[in-house]
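hey team, just a heads up i'm posting the complex here instead of the shared drive bc the drive is being weird again. everything in one block, sequence lines first with there labels, then the predicted structure for the whole assembly after. its two chains so it's a bit long, scroll down
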Amino acid sequence: MNTVKFELYRAFHSRTFLISLIIGSVICALDLITFCIMVGLGGRYLAQAWIGTDYLFAYNQMFYILLPVLACLPYGGSLYTDIKTGYDKNICVKTSRLNYSFAKSVSVFLSGFVSVCLPLVVNLFIAAGIYSNYLPERLDATSIALDDIYLFASVYDKHPAIYCLIYILIDSLFAGTMALTSLSLTIKVKSSFTAVVTPMVLIFMFDVFVGVEEYGNWSVMAMLNPIQYMHSFWYQLLIVYLVIFLVNVVVITLTSRKRAIL
Amino acid sequence: MSEIKIESLSKSIKGTLILDKVSLVLNSGNIYGLRGKNGSGKTMLMRAMSGLLIPDTGSVIINGKTLHKDISFPESIGILIENPSFLPQYTGFKNLKLLAGLTGNISDDEIRTALERVGLDPEDKRIYRKYSLGMKQKLGIANAIMGEPDIIILDEPINALDEESVKKIKKVLLEIRDKDKLIIIACHDREELEYLSDIIYEIKDGSIVDRKEISNDNTKTFEA
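-- predicted structure starts here --
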């Protein structure tokens, strides 16, 4: 438990965590400001204004494209830095390798989770302070159009704010798992930057591959965007999440057990 | 009372044999010196004793418990191996406090004492990034000795230290040894190593090639 506390302290007091939060928050703020200026304050509702469901401006795409980086930036490269500077020696004579890996994984996951969750939640709350939570109108084309087959379509129709919160949770959980990917790549990469950026590159490559093969609804980026520009099923979301999560856990556990600390 | 028993320890990294069937028994109340050329295996042997390196064959047994079998890391150890490394954005005290939190059994007073013993001011507000080379080295030693662990492993501890500081560190190490602790030092300065050590092991190509007893008098104390 001491090791988890130690790593959490480092993660949430790091400069990179702050930078990630600032980037995410600025994108969210720009979206809301643009929405207020361009669309106005009257006659609009929360589900149109929140960055996740606001399809009018590019900020939604920008946020979701950058999501893997926002998730990995806070603490994803920290194991690489610990190894490179030799700081891991200080830790591994006071706790076991597995404990260290577990603590690192928990803090990387949580820092990724929070760095995506916080800007989205704050954006939702500020938008809720400006716009009412009216039910979205399906036919007027001023909000995203979710047919009944889309994920959580009925929640969106009846409780749009809950829909937003569900997607914030999904996005944050994925963000935590993507951050774990940067941790599991650490042993193989040559710089902290590569560890932080590679998960995004891998996701892009995967999305391009499934797009080319006409399995676009397996696209990770599409699954995470509340606009749902591809129709994915809940089991696809679950399978993709579990595969990324479990592969990361296995890789991190195996590499940490036998790693020589030089 | 601590004992490190190394039995036929071998380790290769990327096809190069770095430790070759090393066998040793080290007991508390002594300072052991490791001597050898660059790349002879001193640091690797220290890493293996600290549990940082997993041997290919052989074992490191600390107080009857085999590393990586019965225990994952030595229960009470302080190390400074190669360059000291700390979090650059924090002060020396804060760095040690964070690391002490990992075990939870080292008090703030013990951290302050360790810093003062090596000649650092616990109230110094400068962050680690601003430290001089010598101050970084002292902080590394303070980290190794804080809470006076049963085993202390120091690789080139007097690197980058001025004469005054070297005297201070030597005094501290002898004091700690006299509290029945086990200290292992690697040092290129032959004179300093012989002064500090009770027994010196010569390492060549990953093997122990010589053992030299410097003094049987276990009451050797610091002469200012």
